[in-house]
């Protein structure tokens, strides 16, 4: 019962993080700050990575590595926004970190889809086949472009930025 509730909670938090992240990144691309929604995104992204370690495991899995990378990214992104208030280089660190955080959530969602959806699993049973690798490669390329654009375009007005 605990594992079922943990899985449900982890999944709902992940979906909330992805939805909030999409809106936050869209705002970054428009040069706007998302305010409280950015807080929701960063908090749910953090919770997604943290709750992943609550599942029982006996060996270190790729998902653990991804979660560690996500936590490291957030370790720079959170202070960039809340401690350094997007000043100077922290603006770019925040924008790039937010995009990287969403990418890692999407990366894991794609891996989960290929692992659990029968039609996708049939195309890439070991997740080392071309359909999976091409999908993840295209996703990475899109997010690299989004990251570059977000860093270039996100210049919130000093008076408009109010940390949540």
Q: Main sheet? A: none
Number of strands: 0
| Radius of gyration (Å) | 17 Å
Which structural class fits the helix and strand makeup? mainly alpha
User: Which blocks of ≥5 consecutive residues have pLDDT under 50?
Assistant: none
Q: What's the pLDDT, averaged over the residues?
A: 94
Estimate percent helicity.
over 70%
The backbone outline, from C-alpha atoms, is: globular
Number of domains: 1
H-E order = HHHHHH
Count of helical stretches: 6
Q: Strand percentage, roughly?
A: under 5%
- Terminal Cα separation, in Å? 35 Å
What does this structure look like?
By secondary structure, this protein is mainly alpha-helical. The protein has one domain (about 1-155). The protein is about 75% helix and about 0% strand. The protein has helices at about 1-30, 35-50, 60-80, 90-115, 120-125, 130-155. The longest helix has 28 residues, at about 1-30. The model has no long low-confidence stretch (mean pLDDT about 95).
Write out key terms for the chains shown:
single chain, 164 residues, mainly alpha
Gist of the model:
The protein is mostly helical and 164 residues long. It has one domain. It has 6 helices and no strands.
Helices and strands in order, then pairings?
Layout: H1 2-29, H2 36-52, H3 62-82, H4 89-116, H5 118-123, H6 130-153
């Amino acid at each position: 019962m605990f594992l079922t509730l943990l899985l449900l909670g982890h999944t709902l938090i992940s979906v909330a993080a992805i939805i909030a992240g999409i809106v936050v990144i869209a705002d970054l691309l428009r040069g706007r700050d998302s305010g409280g929604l950015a807080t929701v995104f960063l908090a749910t992204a953090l919770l997604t990575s943290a709750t992943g370690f609550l599942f029982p495991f006996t060996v270190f899995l790729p998902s653990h590595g991804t979660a560690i990378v996500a936590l490291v990214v957030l370790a720079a992104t959170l202070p960039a926004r809340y401690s350094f208030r997007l000043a100077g280089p922290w603006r770019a660190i925040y924008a790039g970190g937010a995009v990287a955080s969403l990418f890692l959530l999407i990366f894991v969602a794609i891996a989960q889809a290929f692992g659990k959806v029968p039609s996708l699993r049939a195309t890439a049973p070991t997740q080392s086949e071309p359909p999976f690798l091409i999908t993840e490669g295209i996703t990475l390329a899109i997010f690299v472009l989004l990251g570059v654009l977000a860093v270039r375009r996100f210049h919130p007005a000093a008076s408009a930025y109010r940390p949540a």
